[in-house]
Fold this sequence. Notes:
By secondary structure, this protein is α+β, with helices and mostly antiparallel strands. It is 33% helix and 17% strand.
Amino acid sequence: MAAKQAKQAATVVPAVPVGYVPSLQKKYKEEIVPKLKKELGYDTVMRVPKLEKITINQGVGQATADKKLIEVAQQELTAITGQKAVMTYSKKDISNFKLRKGMPIGVKVTLRGTRMYEFLERLICIALPRIRDFKGINEKLDGRGNYTLGVKEQIIFPEIDIDKITKVMGMEITFVTNTDSDEAAFALLREFGLPFKNIKK
């Protein structure tokens, strides 16, 4: 019982301080909105694209053989995002991979509001620059105004103690906007400071 309580306590995340507004959230309202309104030729600020949510998915295929891996992944993603990660489960049986329907195969977090902006700021300013030989991220969006960034190693996030990790795991970070235009979404993410390759200075 005590061990279970200790485990639950380890995944508790601190509340966002009342009144805290991340600098990127301020920048969006004060700088990005008027700039994109002019750049994209919109007649009202209501048409300017905005970031609705960021989802972080981490697949843990080896969890079929080692259940502890999924628990570790959940704890790590919770630490990285500041929000409790939830497990994702297989939707069907796949005998070749010894996978049964309903087995945990990954972890996921969906960030909105203050936590979303706070995570985005840490990603841009701290995590991505820690990638070895980093030269920028690919520019291709999905055709519907959303962008997915693949991260090969969770150790780029300072919340992860490299001496304590059990396995190096990657993740997919998806930026979901409220526009179907890749051009508008790209302009938005560029203004936030995502370091895309080949941006004209």
